[in-house]
Amino acid sequence: MTDPVIPGTLDADVTARAATGALDGTLDGNASPTAVEVRPASRVRRDYVLLKAGVVATDCLSVAAGLGLAVLVDRAFSSQTLQVGWLTALSPLLVVVVFSAFHLYSIQRLTAAEEFRLILLAVTMVITSIVTLSFWVGAEFSRPWIGLSWAIAMMFVMASRYLWRRIIYVSRQHGRLVQRTLIVGANAEAGRIVTEMLHDDLGFIPLGYVCADAWGRPTTDVPMLGDLDNLGALIAETDADCIFVASSAIRPEHMAQVNKAARRCGIEVRVTANVQEVLSTRISPQPLGGLMAFSLRPVRLSGLQAGAKRTFDIVSSTVVLIVFSPLITLIAVAVKATSAGPILFRQERVGYRGRPFTVLKFRTMVADAEERLPELLDRNEATGPLFKMAHDPRVTRFGRFLRKTSLDELPQLVNVLRGDMTVVGPRPPLPREVAQYEEWQMARLEVRPGITGLWQVSGRSELPFEDYVRLDLFYIENWSLAFDLFIIAKTLPTIISRRGAH
After folding, report:
1. What is the Cα gyration radius of the chain?
2. What is the pLDDT of residue 417?
3. Are strands 283-288 and 268-271 parallel, antiparallel or unpaired?
4. Which of 62-66, 229-233, 301-305 has the lowest mean pLDDT?
5. What is the pLDDT of residue 421?
6. CB of 30 closer than 8 Å to CB of 221
7. Neighbouring-strand partners of residue 395
8. 389 near 376, Cβ under 8 Å?
9. DSSP state letters, 348-374
């Protein structure tokens, strides 16, 4: 998580009127001090239009460049002449149509994981469409070119989208691309909405509360602006871009008022769903007579999905072990040469459904590390049943390098081949940790533990135990093969940055 920016709440004149009760219905004028200058609503919308235009351009260039570069690579290894020039020229049109169909230009509504999944589908659809068109017109192409085009285009699109996300983050740090938001509701849930907006770079600046029923007083430094009867006037007064509704604070008739005011002012409405720790890809709206319900897709692995995950584990582990076998050999020699003791560290962990197994790692500590653990317990820097020390005296010099680069975990690929672990999954716990679990934490044992996971790409050793568990349970609740690929894609940058590695 990035460092939060404490944004401003209201323009000076609106804040002054809120403080004096000049806005109709205002009961509380405790506004936060302004820290960044927020652009007017019309400028925010123009900024998003320009941003989307830039994203469309880079998406088209990325796919076209992928097709062209694949031709050059193919020519280096084949004498076949490819007739794909016109397909490359047509690709921007296909990109715009397909990417729009997958809602990839609703940038402010996509999480990184959801965007990754949709890009996988969209690029695959674009390449498939190009191949289909080439069959219809009889153009010559090679099978390797298809695979190269997909891989290179995917890499370019992912890289450009990552850069755009960095641009969005920096822009929000400077008060741009943020939606000025009115919070409808004044209960605890409304307070939580404001807290999330203030502590995360989500692209919202809370302007104030609009009360639907009885007045509440959430514990946040955001003013109470008025009641729902004055919503239209408050939107105009504050130049709001968005209305965020706390669903537990309103009745159906209140929602009709919100929709009417938003429709007249042409701004967006968002409503909390009270469905926590769930990816949006699992939720779909479903009408129920005159009501609107949310359908929550189950995530339990079917036989086909479990087979696909296991196949991916076996193939990827085998390939990595073969490709990195020279490096693995060098590490083994270095471990033996730099300190006394065995090459591999073996430790009992708890796996799928509580079954114990022996995890394998390159040894990074002195041979008697486990015997010396009791004397270090009072210096534990972790929370819960975990034990972590940033400068553990038991770690050898070469072992510290292995931990920083995560190379000590390469032998765990053998655990994956054995079926004890998976490539992506929850962190494998120690028996003493499981003995201290509360009932709700036992859900971590419903799937196989993984070499990497959300805990690995979200802070590693910097995370407290409760966050470890929360991230693991989030993964279990939202598993998909695309989500696994997303986590793997984030693992390499995390390892390179050495963030959270002890």
Report:
1. 27
2. 96
3. unpaired
4. 301-305
5. 95
6. yes
7. 365
8. yes
9. EEE-GGG-EEEEEEE--B-TTHHHHGG
Helix %, strand %, coil % for the chain, to 5? 55, 10, 30
DSSP 464-496: -HHHHHHHHHHHHHT--HHHHHHHHHHHHHHHH
d(CA 376, CA 502) in angstroms, rounded, equals: 16
Residue-by-residue DSSP string for 41-68:
HHHHHHHHHHHHHHHHHHHHHHHHHHHH
How distant, in Å, are the alpha carbons of 142, 143, 153, 488 from that of 147?
A: 9, 7, 10, 20
User: Residue 210: left (phi > 0), alpha (psi -120 to 50), or beta?
Assistant: beta
What pLDDT, on a 0 to 100 scale, did the predictor assign at position 10?
Answer: 39
Q: Cα(256)–Cα(178) distance, rounded to whole angstroms? A: 26
Following DSSP, what letter does each residue of 79-105 receive, concatenated?
A: -PPP--HHHHHHHHHHHHHHHHHTTTT
Query: φ, ψ for residue 266 (rounded to 5)?
Result: 70, 40
Cα–Cα distance, 336 to 321 (Å, whole number) = 20
3-state DSSP assignment of residue 294: strand
* pLDDT mean over 57-85: 80
Residue-wise pLDDT tens digits, 277-335: 666 666 777 777 777 777 776 666 667 878 889 999 999 999 999 999 999 999 999 99
Q: Is the pLDDT of residue 139 over 50?
A: yes
Is the pLDDT at 21 greater than 50? The verdict is no
Side-chain half-sphere exposure of 123, counting CA atoms within 13 A:
27
Q: Pick from 230, 228, 167, 231: which is nearest to 201 by CA? A: 167
CB atoms within 10 A of CB 149: 29
Residue whose entry in the numeric block shows the structure tokens 């076996």: 314
Average pLDDT over residues 425-439: 87
Report which secondary-structure segment, H or E, holds 319: helix 303-323
User: With contact defined as beta carbons under 8 Å apart, do 409 and 501 qualify?
Assistant: no
Tokens of 188: 């605890």
* Biggest CA pair distance of the chain: 79
Give whole-number Cα distances, 74 to 125, 135, 141, 275, in Å. Answer: 21, 19, 10, 49
